[in-house]
Amino acid sequence: MIYFDHAATTAVLPAAADAAYRVMTRDFGNPSSLHALGKQAAKEVEEHRAAVAKALGCQPGELFFTSCGTEGDNWAVQLAVHLGRHRGKHIITTAVEHAAVLEPCKALEQQGYEVAYLTPDHTGRIPIEAVEAALQEDTVLVSMMLVNNETGAIQPVAEVSQVLKGRRSSALLHTDAVQGFLKVPFTPKSLGADLVTLSAHKIGGMKGSGALYIRSGLRAEPLIRGGGQEKGLRSGTEATPQIAAFAAAAELGYKHRDENIAYLQDLKAYALETLQAKVPGLAVVAEGDAPHICAVSLPGRPSQVVVRYLSDKGFCLSAGSACHRGKASHVYGAMNLSKPVRDGMLRLSFAPSNTRDEVDALAEAMLSATRDLVAAGR
To answer: Which in 167, 185, 263, 337 has the greatest CB count within 10 A?
Structure first.
């Protein structure tokens, strides 16, 4: 199997798996227990928090563990509107956000909020002028992802922060950095973000773990009430194996970040060049600013058919976000692409484990796909 779907999920790194296994079988105490094993578990959770915080570039006390990126996004939106409830009911987001942001915003519209959904240009990027035009005095939240999960476009989050400061807006700035963490250099401070969402399984950690950065000074409302874990903001026994794996993956990713970025940039450039040269009719729709994601199209060839064909040949890639479950991508729809191009969209997402030989094999498989599907009338 050759895997080019790392934006959907990644294999758990050996070091992360080892860390989780150790916690599951040896250091398995409940961090809330007062005996020695519990105290050791509590100490380790804080060490893991510090490791992820270092990789992100924030203080450990600003980082709160969650179950996933979706939970973090939901929490961020809810927190921002709660803190701004006396100031207004206007939200700015984009038409290319993950459903974890779009669905909470749609729910808020049913509660009387006005939401501006900014549309991208043909590259998938949101023009900063669109944010400036949409900003109102009663805007309480701007939520803009750092790296789009289907195009690799890097959005102007830091520039949005400057707009908010220049207009003296009290709106909070949230960014879904699930695809950006350890793929592009940033810190919450460099972005000017108040809230930042992370996910462990996108960087070699385990599914079921993530984190939300909450800027120091914000009076956060509890997401889950109960036993008082996570400073009382997210009660529930800590998922210590997943947290340990998250920290191990973050440490490794941070240590090798720059070399990984350079390798991925080179590999993606080679992939786009090779595919264009070897696969007739293939169109590069989004080269992707981030080093690990790009989008191409075989116009007129239904992407789901191509994905299944390639899967049968041992290749894993996608027609967009795994969260679409076969539905048409709202991201590609928002980019105003022609129907043939939109119908033939394929997302490639890379990891340092991928090689040029794998890219060459993919090009041959895609060439075969175009020939066989033509012959079959597909």
So the answer is: 337
